[in-house]
Amino acid sequence: MIVQDHSRHIAIITMDNQAKSNALSRSDLRELGELWLRLQDGPYRSIILTGAGEKSFCAGADLSGDLSA
Q1: InterPro entries from the xrefs (predicted)?
Q2: What is the pLDDT of residue 50?
């Protein structure tokens, strides 16, 4: 994940896994959740979630990793 702060009140989170159409692994989902909680407690009025590249926003879950609970 890449976080950019374009102003005092706007944070942009970019999912950057273009090789897998920005699919999210279990660790990516955990990181995104922790990041979201941290940012929402900050000075931001808006949090924008976007995907890197031009092909897709996010393919969903990356099922190629460990799927055990």
Answers
A1: ClpP/crotonase-like_dom_sf, Enoyl-CoA_hydra/iso
A2: 93
DSSP string, 19-60: GGTT-B-HHHHHHHHHHHHHHHTTT-SEEEEEESSSS-S---
pLDDT single digits (tens) 16-46: 999 999 999 999 999 999 998 988 888 889 9
CB-based burial of residue 44 (10 Å sphere; 0-12 exposed, 13-18 middle, 19+ buried)? middle
Phi/psi of residue 8, nearest 5 degrees: -70, -20
* CB 11, CB 4: distance < 8 Å: yes
